[in-house]
Amino acid sequence: MARGIDREHRRVVLAAMAGTTIEWYDFFVYAISAGLVFATQYFSALGKDALILSFATVGISFFFRPIGAVVAGHLGDRFGRRAVLIATLLLMGVSTVLIGLVPTTASIGVAAPILLVLLRIVQGLSAGGEWGGAALLAVEHAPAGRRGLYGAFPQIGVPIGLLLANGALALAAAVTTPAQFLVWGWRIPFLLSFVLIVLGFVIRSRVAESPVFEEVRRTRSRSSLPLVPLLRHHGLLVVLGALLFAANNAVGYMTTGGYVQSYATKTLHLDRSVVLVAVMISAVAWLVSTLVGGWLADRVGRITVYRIGFAVQLVWMVPFFALLDTANAGLLVLALVLFSVGLGFTYGPQAALYAEMYPTRVRYSGAALSYAIGAVLGGAFAPTIAEALQSSTGTVYSVCAYLAGMTLIGLVATFFVRDRRDVPLGQSRETVSLSEPRLLE
Protein backbone atom coordinates (compact mmCIF):
# COMPACT_ATOMS: atom_id res chain seq x y z
CA MET A 1 0.00 0.00 0.00
CA ALA A 2 2.91 2.37 0.65
CA ARG A 3 4.07 1.95 -2.97
CA GLY A 4 3.29 4.97 -5.09
CA ILE A 5 4.07 7.45 -2.29
CA ASP A 6 7.23 9.12 -3.64
CA ARG A 7 9.80 11.09 -1.69
CA GLU A 8 8.17 14.44 -2.44
CA HIS A 9 4.86 13.35 -0.96
CA ARG A 10 6.31 11.35 1.91
CA ARG A 11 7.10 14.51 3.84
CA VAL A 12 3.51 15.71 3.42
CA VAL A 13 1.86 12.54 4.72
CA LEU A 14 4.42 12.36 7.54
CA ALA A 15 3.60 15.93 8.59
CA ALA A 16 -0.14 15.27 8.47
CA MET A 17 0.22 12.01 10.37
CA ALA A 18 2.71 13.34 12.94
CA GLY A 19 0.56 16.34 13.74
CA THR A 20 -2.64 14.38 14.23
CA THR A 21 -0.73 11.80 16.28
CA ILE A 22 0.52 14.46 18.67
CA GLU A 23 -2.85 16.22 18.83
CA TRP A 24 -4.70 13.01 19.63
CA TYR A 25 -2.08 11.74 22.04
CA ASP A 26 -2.78 14.90 24.03
CA PHE A 27 -6.53 14.54 23.66
CA PHE A 28 -6.63 10.86 24.60
CA VAL A 29 -4.30 11.16 27.59
CA TYR A 30 -6.97 13.38 29.11
CA ALA A 31 -9.88 11.17 28.06
CA ILE A 32 -8.31 8.01 29.49
CA SER A 33 -7.23 9.79 32.67
CA ALA A 34 -10.83 10.94 33.14
CA GLY A 35 -11.81 7.33 33.74
CA LEU A 36 -8.73 6.33 35.72
CA VAL A 37 -7.76 9.38 37.78
CA PHE A 38 -9.80 12.57 37.61
CA ALA A 39 -12.93 11.25 39.32
CA THR A 40 -10.99 10.70 42.55
CA GLN A 41 -8.52 13.58 42.31
CA TYR A 42 -10.78 16.39 41.10
CA PHE A 43 -14.44 15.39 41.51
CA SER A 44 -14.47 13.16 44.61
CA ALA A 45 -16.77 15.57 46.48
CA LEU A 46 -19.60 14.41 44.20
CA GLY A 47 -19.51 10.87 45.57
CA LYS A 48 -21.07 8.25 43.29
CA ASP A 49 -21.59 10.82 40.52
CA ALA A 50 -17.89 11.69 40.36
CA LEU A 51 -17.13 9.30 37.51
CA ILE A 52 -20.06 10.48 35.41
CA LEU A 53 -19.00 14.13 35.82
CA SER A 54 -15.40 13.21 35.08
CA PHE A 55 -16.51 11.67 31.77
CA ALA A 56 -18.69 14.74 31.19
CA THR A 57 -15.56 16.92 31.16
CA VAL A 58 -14.38 14.83 28.23
CA GLY A 59 -17.58 15.76 26.42
CA ILE A 60 -17.62 19.45 27.34
CA SER A 61 -14.67 20.13 25.07
CA PHE A 62 -16.63 18.79 22.10
CA PHE A 63 -19.01 21.74 22.23
CA PHE A 64 -16.06 23.99 21.53
CA ARG A 65 -14.88 21.95 18.56
CA PRO A 66 -17.33 23.63 16.14
CA ILE A 67 -16.01 27.02 17.28
CA GLY A 68 -12.46 25.84 16.63
CA ALA A 69 -13.59 24.42 13.30
CA VAL A 70 -15.22 27.70 12.21
CA VAL A 71 -12.19 29.80 13.19
CA ALA A 72 -9.61 27.40 11.73
CA GLY A 73 -11.76 26.81 8.65
CA HIS A 74 -12.05 30.54 8.01
CA LEU A 75 -8.30 31.07 8.43
CA GLY A 76 -7.43 27.93 6.49
CA ASP A 77 -9.64 28.85 3.52
CA ARG A 78 -8.41 32.45 3.58
CA PHE A 79 -4.70 32.12 4.37
CA GLY A 80 -3.75 28.48 3.87
CA ARG A 81 -3.67 25.11 5.60
CA ARG A 82 -0.07 25.06 6.84
CA ALA A 83 -0.01 28.03 9.24
CA VAL A 84 -3.30 27.00 10.85
CA LEU A 85 -2.01 23.46 11.44
CA ILE A 86 1.07 24.78 13.25
CA ALA A 87 -1.13 27.00 15.45
CA THR A 88 -3.54 24.18 16.41
CA LEU A 89 -0.59 21.93 17.28
CA LEU A 90 0.92 24.50 19.64
CA LEU A 91 -2.45 25.28 21.23
CA MET A 92 -3.14 21.63 22.01
CA GLY A 93 0.37 20.92 23.28
CA VAL A 94 0.58 23.86 25.67
CA SER A 95 -2.84 23.13 27.19
CA THR A 96 -1.88 19.49 27.71
CA VAL A 97 1.35 20.34 29.52
CA LEU A 98 -0.55 22.76 31.76
CA ILE A 99 -3.12 20.05 32.65
CA GLY A 100 -0.21 17.99 33.95
CA LEU A 101 0.61 20.86 36.34
CA VAL A 102 -2.89 21.54 37.73
CA PRO A 103 -2.99 20.84 41.51
CA THR A 104 -5.71 18.54 42.81
CA THR A 105 -8.89 19.56 44.64
CA ALA A 106 -7.24 18.55 47.92
CA SER A 107 -4.60 21.24 47.31
CA ILE A 108 -6.49 24.24 45.92
CA GLY A 109 -10.15 23.34 46.29
CA VAL A 110 -12.78 24.11 43.65
CA ALA A 111 -10.24 26.00 41.51
CA ALA A 112 -8.70 22.65 40.53
CA PRO A 113 -11.65 21.21 38.56
CA ILE A 114 -12.36 24.66 37.09
CA LEU A 115 -8.80 24.93 35.72
CA LEU A 116 -9.02 21.37 34.44
CA VAL A 117 -12.22 22.07 32.53
CA LEU A 118 -10.90 25.36 31.09
CA LEU A 119 -7.80 23.65 29.73
CA ARG A 120 -9.95 20.85 28.32
CA ILE A 121 -11.97 23.49 26.49
CA VAL A 122 -8.76 24.80 24.93
CA GLN A 123 -8.02 21.25 23.80
CA GLY A 124 -11.46 21.14 22.20
CA LEU A 125 -10.86 24.38 20.29
CA SER A 126 -7.59 23.00 18.96
CA ALA A 127 -9.04 19.60 18.03
CA GLY A 128 -11.86 21.30 16.14
CA GLY A 129 -9.43 22.99 13.79
CA GLU A 130 -6.72 20.35 13.52
CA TRP A 131 -8.30 17.49 11.64
CA GLY A 132 -9.68 19.40 8.67
CA GLY A 133 -6.34 20.99 7.87
CA ALA A 134 -4.34 17.78 8.26
CA ALA A 135 -6.77 15.82 6.10
CA LEU A 136 -6.76 18.43 3.34
CA LEU A 137 -3.00 18.82 3.41
CA ALA A 138 -2.64 15.11 2.65
CA VAL A 139 -5.53 14.75 0.19
CA GLU A 140 -4.84 17.94 -1.79
CA HIS A 141 -1.22 16.86 -2.32
CA ALA A 142 -2.28 13.38 -3.45
CA PRO A 143 -1.97 12.23 -7.08
CA ALA A 144 -5.07 11.08 -8.95
CA GLY A 145 -6.32 7.70 -7.79
CA ARG A 146 -4.45 7.88 -4.47
CA ARG A 147 -6.52 10.31 -2.43
CA GLY A 148 -8.05 7.56 -0.29
CA LEU A 149 -4.65 6.16 0.67
CA TYR A 150 -3.04 9.56 1.26
CA GLY A 151 -6.04 10.66 3.29
CA ALA A 152 -5.71 7.59 5.50
CA PHE A 153 -2.36 8.75 6.86
CA PRO A 154 -3.64 11.65 8.96
CA GLN A 155 -6.41 9.27 10.04
CA ILE A 156 -3.94 6.79 11.52
CA GLY A 157 -2.67 9.57 13.74
CA VAL A 158 -5.70 8.81 15.91
CA PRO A 159 -4.92 5.13 16.65
CA ILE A 160 -1.22 5.99 16.97
CA GLY A 161 -2.15 8.73 19.42
CA LEU A 162 -4.31 6.24 21.31
CA LEU A 163 -1.44 3.75 21.28
CA LEU A 164 1.02 6.30 22.64
CA ALA A 165 -1.41 7.65 25.23
CA ASN A 166 -2.21 4.19 26.59
CA GLY A 167 1.46 3.24 26.40
CA ALA A 168 2.56 6.30 28.35
CA LEU A 169 -0.09 5.74 31.01
CA ALA A 170 0.67 2.01 31.17
CA LEU A 171 4.36 2.74 31.65
CA ALA A 172 3.60 5.32 34.32
CA ALA A 173 1.33 2.79 36.08
CA ALA A 174 3.98 0.06 35.83
CA VAL A 175 6.77 2.10 37.42
CA THR A 176 4.67 3.51 40.25
CA THR A 177 2.53 2.06 42.99
CA PRO A 178 -1.25 2.55 42.66
CA ALA A 179 -1.06 5.34 45.25
CA GLN A 180 1.87 7.04 43.50
CA PHE A 181 0.12 6.81 40.15
CA LEU A 182 -2.93 8.66 41.50
CA VAL A 183 -0.80 11.34 43.17
CA TRP A 184 1.84 12.11 40.51
CA GLY A 185 2.43 9.21 38.11
CA TRP A 186 -0.47 10.14 35.81
CA ARG A 187 1.09 13.59 35.26
CA ILE A 188 4.14 12.23 33.43
CA PRO A 189 2.36 11.54 30.08
CA PHE A 190 0.93 15.08 30.12
CA LEU A 191 4.32 16.68 30.70
CA LEU A 192 5.92 14.55 27.99
CA SER A 193 3.75 16.38 25.49
CA PHE A 194 6.31 19.19 25.50
CA VAL A 195 8.77 16.97 23.64
CA LEU A 196 6.10 16.05 21.10
CA ILE A 197 5.23 19.72 20.51
CA VAL A 198 8.80 20.52 19.51
CA LEU A 199 8.96 17.48 17.21
CA GLY A 200 5.64 18.28 15.54
CA PHE A 201 6.53 21.94 15.05
CA VAL A 202 9.78 21.06 13.28
CA ILE A 203 8.05 18.56 10.97
CA ARG A 204 5.11 20.78 10.03
CA SER A 205 7.15 23.94 9.51
CA ARG A 206 9.05 22.21 6.69
CA VAL A 207 5.99 21.26 4.62
CA ALA A 208 4.89 23.27 1.59
CA GLU A 209 1.39 24.72 1.30
CA SER A 210 -1.29 22.67 -0.46
CA PRO A 211 -1.00 23.09 -4.26
CA VAL A 212 -4.78 23.26 -4.54
CA PHE A 213 -4.89 26.21 -2.13
CA GLU A 214 -1.97 27.87 -3.93
CA GLU A 215 -4.04 27.73 -7.11
CA VAL A 216 -6.89 29.50 -5.32
CA ARG A 217 -4.47 32.12 -3.99
CA ARG A 218 -3.01 32.77 -7.44
CA THR A 219 -6.42 33.22 -9.04
CA ARG A 220 -7.58 35.40 -6.11
CA SER A 221 -10.76 33.36 -5.78
CA ARG A 222 -10.66 32.97 -2.02
CA SER A 223 -13.92 33.59 -0.17
CA SER A 224 -13.88 36.51 2.27
CA LEU A 225 -16.25 34.66 4.62
CA PRO A 226 -16.23 30.92 3.73
CA LEU A 227 -18.85 29.94 6.30
CA VAL A 228 -21.62 31.88 4.52
CA PRO A 229 -21.44 30.14 1.10
CA LEU A 230 -20.75 26.85 2.85
CA LEU A 231 -23.99 26.91 4.84
CA ARG A 232 -25.99 28.51 2.03
CA HIS A 233 -25.08 26.01 -0.68
CA HIS A 234 -23.79 22.93 1.17
CA GLY A 235 -25.52 22.93 4.55
CA LEU A 236 -27.15 19.52 4.00
CA LEU A 237 -23.76 18.02 3.18
CA VAL A 238 -22.37 19.37 6.45
CA VAL A 239 -25.15 17.53 8.29
CA LEU A 240 -24.68 14.27 6.37
CA GLY A 241 -20.93 14.38 6.89
CA ALA A 242 -21.54 14.94 10.60
CA LEU A 243 -23.85 11.91 10.82
CA LEU A 244 -21.27 9.69 9.12
CA PHE A 245 -18.63 10.67 11.62
CA ALA A 246 -20.99 10.57 14.60
CA ALA A 247 -21.63 6.86 13.97
CA ASN A 248 -17.92 6.13 13.92
CA ASN A 249 -17.07 8.47 16.78
CA ALA A 250 -19.63 7.17 19.29
CA VAL A 251 -18.32 3.63 18.89
CA GLY A 252 -14.67 4.71 18.87
CA TYR A 253 -15.05 6.67 22.09
CA MET A 254 -15.74 3.50 24.02
CA THR A 255 -11.95 3.11 24.09
CA THR A 256 -10.65 6.57 23.18
CA GLY A 257 -13.01 8.17 25.70
CA GLY A 258 -12.00 5.82 28.49
CA TYR A 259 -15.28 3.93 29.04
CA VAL A 260 -13.92 0.44 28.34
CA GLN A 261 -10.84 1.14 30.47
CA SER A 262 -12.99 2.32 33.36
CA TYR A 263 -15.50 -0.55 33.09
CA ALA A 264 -12.80 -3.20 32.82
CA THR A 265 -10.84 -1.92 35.83
CA LYS A 266 -13.58 -0.70 38.16
CA THR A 267 -16.42 -3.14 37.41
CA LEU A 268 -14.61 -6.23 36.11
CA HIS A 269 -11.57 -5.65 38.38
CA LEU A 270 -8.99 -6.31 35.68
CA ASP A 271 -5.50 -4.96 36.32
CA ARG A 272 -5.07 -1.40 34.99
CA SER A 273 -1.85 -2.21 33.12
CA VAL A 274 -3.43 -5.27 31.47
CA VAL A 275 -6.36 -3.19 30.22
CA LEU A 276 -4.13 -0.43 28.88
CA VAL A 277 -2.00 -2.96 27.00
CA ALA A 278 -5.15 -4.56 25.53
CA VAL A 279 -6.26 -1.16 24.25
CA MET A 280 -2.79 -0.60 22.78
CA ILE A 281 -3.05 -3.86 20.83
CA SER A 282 -6.46 -2.84 19.55
CA ALA A 283 -5.01 0.52 18.48
CA VAL A 284 -2.58 -1.34 16.21
CA ALA A 285 -5.51 -3.21 14.65
CA TRP A 286 -7.34 0.09 14.21
CA LEU A 287 -4.27 1.60 12.53
CA VAL A 288 -3.94 -1.28 10.05
CA SER A 289 -7.65 -1.40 9.22
CA THR A 290 -7.69 2.38 8.70
CA LEU A 291 -4.87 2.15 6.15
CA VAL A 292 -6.59 -0.78 4.46
CA GLY A 293 -9.84 1.19 4.42
CA GLY A 294 -8.18 4.17 2.74
CA TRP A 295 -6.40 1.96 0.21
CA LEU A 296 -9.56 0.01 -0.56
CA ALA A 297 -11.54 3.23 -0.97
CA ASP A 298 -9.41 4.06 -4.03
CA ARG A 299 -10.43 0.77 -5.59
CA VAL A 300 -14.07 0.17 -4.72
CA GLY A 301 -15.17 3.63 -3.64
CA ARG A 302 -15.48 5.55 -0.37
CA ILE A 303 -19.13 4.78 0.27
CA THR A 304 -18.74 1.04 -0.29
CA VAL A 305 -15.96 0.88 2.31
CA TYR A 306 -18.07 2.90 4.73
CA ARG A 307 -20.94 0.46 4.39
CA ILE A 308 -18.67 -2.52 4.99
CA GLY A 309 -17.32 -0.84 8.11
CA PHE A 310 -20.71 0.01 9.54
CA ALA A 311 -21.92 -3.54 8.85
CA VAL A 312 -18.93 -4.94 10.77
CA GLN A 313 -19.59 -2.54 13.66
CA LEU A 314 -23.22 -3.64 13.81
CA VAL A 315 -22.58 -7.39 13.58
CA TRP A 316 -19.79 -7.35 16.17
CA MET A 317 -21.58 -5.19 18.74
CA VAL A 318 -23.20 -7.95 20.85
CA PRO A 319 -20.20 -10.36 20.73
CA PHE A 320 -17.95 -7.46 21.77
CA PHE A 321 -19.82 -6.82 25.00
CA ALA A 322 -20.25 -10.55 25.66
CA LEU A 323 -16.48 -11.08 25.47
CA LEU A 324 -15.83 -7.95 27.52
CA ASP A 325 -18.06 -9.25 30.31
CA THR A 326 -16.03 -12.46 30.65
CA ALA A 327 -13.35 -10.39 32.43
CA ASN A 328 -10.76 -12.51 30.62
CA ALA A 329 -7.71 -10.55 29.42
CA GLY A 330 -7.22 -12.65 26.27
CA LEU A 331 -10.87 -12.38 25.25
CA LEU A 332 -10.76 -8.65 25.98
CA VAL A 333 -7.93 -8.31 23.44
CA LEU A 334 -9.88 -10.36 20.87
CA ALA A 335 -13.01 -8.27 21.43
CA LEU A 336 -11.15 -4.98 21.03
CA VAL A 337 -9.15 -6.06 17.98
CA LEU A 338 -12.23 -7.14 16.00
CA PHE A 339 -14.08 -4.08 17.29
CA SER A 340 -11.35 -1.95 15.68
CA VAL A 341 -11.84 -3.36 12.18
CA GLY A 342 -15.21 -1.68 11.71
CA LEU A 343 -13.77 1.55 13.13
CA GLY A 344 -10.92 1.51 10.62
CA PHE A 345 -13.17 0.94 7.63
CA THR A 346 -15.44 3.83 8.67
CA TYR A 347 -12.43 6.08 9.34
CA GLY A 348 -9.92 5.33 6.57
CA PRO A 349 -11.96 6.84 3.68
CA GLN A 350 -13.13 9.88 5.65
CA ALA A 351 -10.46 12.43 4.69
CA ALA A 352 -10.83 11.75 0.96
CA LEU A 353 -14.63 11.70 1.11
CA TYR A 354 -14.85 15.00 3.02
CA ALA A 355 -12.35 16.72 0.71
CA GLU A 356 -14.34 15.62 -2.34
CA MET A 357 -17.64 16.80 -0.87
CA TYR A 358 -16.73 20.52 -0.91
CA PRO A 359 -15.28 23.03 -3.41
CA THR A 360 -11.81 24.44 -2.71
CA ARG A 361 -12.99 27.88 -1.54
CA VAL A 362 -14.92 26.41 1.42
CA ARG A 363 -13.26 23.00 1.74
CA TYR A 364 -11.42 23.56 5.03
CA SER A 365 -14.54 25.07 6.62
CA GLY A 366 -16.78 22.27 5.34
CA ALA A 367 -14.53 19.38 6.31
CA ALA A 368 -13.71 20.83 9.72
CA LEU A 369 -17.32 21.70 10.56
CA SER A 370 -18.69 18.29 9.50
CA TYR A 371 -16.03 16.63 11.62
CA ALA A 372 -16.59 18.87 14.63
CA ILE A 373 -20.40 18.56 14.61
CA GLY A 374 -20.08 14.79 14.13
CA ALA A 375 -17.82 14.67 17.17
CA VAL A 376 -20.43 16.54 19.24
CA LEU A 377 -23.24 14.23 18.10
CA GLY A 378 -21.16 11.07 18.41
CA GLY A 379 -18.25 11.07 20.83
CA ALA A 380 -18.92 14.10 23.03
CA PHE A 381 -20.91 12.33 25.70
CA ALA A 382 -20.66 8.72 24.50
CA PRO A 383 -18.66 7.64 27.60
CA THR A 384 -21.03 9.59 29.86
CA ILE A 385 -24.11 8.09 28.20
CA ALA A 386 -22.57 4.62 28.36
CA GLU A 387 -21.76 4.99 32.06
CA ALA A 388 -25.24 6.33 32.82
CA LEU A 389 -26.96 3.54 30.84
CA GLN A 390 -24.91 0.84 32.52
CA SER A 391 -25.52 2.32 35.98
CA SER A 392 -29.26 2.72 35.49
CA THR A 393 -29.96 -0.62 33.78
CA GLY A 394 -27.31 -2.76 35.44
CA THR A 395 -26.19 -4.24 32.11
CA VAL A 396 -23.73 -3.26 29.38
CA TYR A 397 -26.21 -4.44 26.75
CA SER A 398 -28.04 -1.14 27.11
CA VAL A 399 -24.78 0.45 25.93
CA CYS A 400 -24.74 -2.08 23.09
CA ALA A 401 -28.20 -0.93 21.96
CA TYR A 402 -27.16 2.72 22.06
CA LEU A 403 -24.08 2.09 19.89
CA ALA A 404 -26.04 -0.10 17.46
CA GLY A 405 -28.50 2.76 17.01
CA MET A 406 -25.70 5.23 16.27
CA THR A 407 -24.19 2.80 13.75
CA LEU A 408 -27.51 2.46 11.93
CA ILE A 409 -27.73 6.25 11.60
CA GLY A 410 -24.35 6.29 9.88
CA LEU A 411 -25.27 3.41 7.61
CA VAL A 412 -28.46 5.17 6.49
CA ALA A 413 -26.51 8.40 5.84
CA THR A 414 -24.26 6.60 3.32
CA PHE A 415 -27.25 6.24 0.98
CA PHE A 416 -27.57 10.03 0.70
CA VAL A 417 -23.94 10.92 -0.07
CA ARG A 418 -22.53 10.64 -3.56
CA ASP A 419 -19.10 9.03 -4.08
CA ARG A 420 -17.01 11.56 -6.05
CA ARG A 421 -13.59 9.88 -6.07
CA ASP A 422 -12.98 10.72 -9.75
CA VAL A 423 -13.75 14.46 -9.45
CA PRO A 424 -10.69 16.80 -9.61
CA LEU A 425 -10.06 18.97 -6.55
CA GLY A 426 -8.58 22.10 -8.17
CA GLN A 427 -10.14 25.21 -9.65
CA SER A 428 -11.78 23.10 -12.39
CA ARG A 429 -13.99 21.82 -9.56
CA GLU A 430 -15.40 25.33 -9.20
CA THR A 431 -16.81 25.30 -12.72
CA VAL A 432 -19.10 22.38 -11.94
CA SER A 433 -22.51 23.07 -10.42
CA LEU A 434 -22.19 22.25 -6.73
CA SER A 435 -25.82 22.37 -5.70
CA GLU A 436 -26.66 19.76 -3.14
CA PRO A 437 -29.05 17.73 -5.31
CA ARG A 438 -26.15 16.94 -7.66
CA LEU A 439 -23.88 15.94 -4.82
CA LEU A 440 -26.54 13.68 -3.41
CA GLU A 441 -27.64 12.04 -6.61
Automatic annotation (TrEMBL):
Cite the InterPro entries for this sequence. MFS, MFS_dom, MFS_trans_sf, Sugar_transporter_CS
* Keyword Membrane assigned: yes
- Its main subcellular localisation, reduced to a broad class, is membrane
Subcellular locations according to the entry = Cell membrane
Enumerate the UniProt keywords alphabetically: Cell membrane, Membrane, Transmembrane, Transmembrane helix, Transport
Provide the Gene Ontology terms for cellular component: plasma membrane
How does the UniProt record describe the way this protein sits in the membrane?
A: Multi-pass membrane protein
Membrane-spanning regions, if any?
A: 12-38, 50-71, 83-102, 108-128, 149-175, 181-203, 274-297, 304-323, 329-347, 368-389, 395-417
Alphabetically, the GO molecular function entries are: transmembrane transporter activity
What the entry lists under Pfam families is as follows: MFS_1
Name the CDD domains for this protein.
Answer: MFS_ShiA_like (cd17369)
- Give all residue intervals belonging to the Major facilitator superfamily (MFS) profile domain: 12-422
Kindly provide the name given to this protein in its UniProt entry. Answer: Predicted arabinose efflux permease, MFS family
Q: What is the lineage of its organism?
A: Bacteria, Bacillati, Actinomycetota, Actinomycetes, Pseudonocardiales
